[in-house]
Amino acid sequence: MEISIKVSPEDYEKLRDDIPHESRAREAIDKATWIEHALGGVEFEGYDILCDQEQARLLLATAKRCCPTAVHDIEKAIAFANK
Question: Can you say whether the dihedral through the CA atoms of 36, 16, 5, 11 is positive or negative?
Fold first, then answer.
């Protein structure tokens, strides 16, 4: 199952800086794409991280350590993918 996690540029940088190069989550971070869109008049600029469940769990654990502002976005993406 593919999970799409959208994070701000600041959160992306924090996650990228803290994830070890040997981690499976690193592959997802390195392949993240920059996105800009508006939905319902709300503009979003940030990164879309496509990953599997294991990578999402690793990203969530990393966020809990170094980037608490991304925790909600990651949890929301995991919950949405599991519906």
Answer: negative
pTM: 0.89
Q: Helices marked H in 1-83 — which ranges? A: 9-18, 24-30, 53-66, 68-81
Q: How far is CA 60 from CA 2, 8, 13, 36, 45, in A?
A: 15, 15, 15, 23, 20
CA dihedral angle for residue 81, residue 1, residue 20, residue 16, rounded to 10 degrees: -50
Spatial contact of 27 and 15, defined as CB atoms under 8 Å apart: no
Shortest CA distance to 74 belongs to which of 59, 82, 31?
59
Q: pLDDT tens, 3-56?
A: 999 999 999 999 999 999 999 999 999 999 999 877 677 778 999 999 999 999
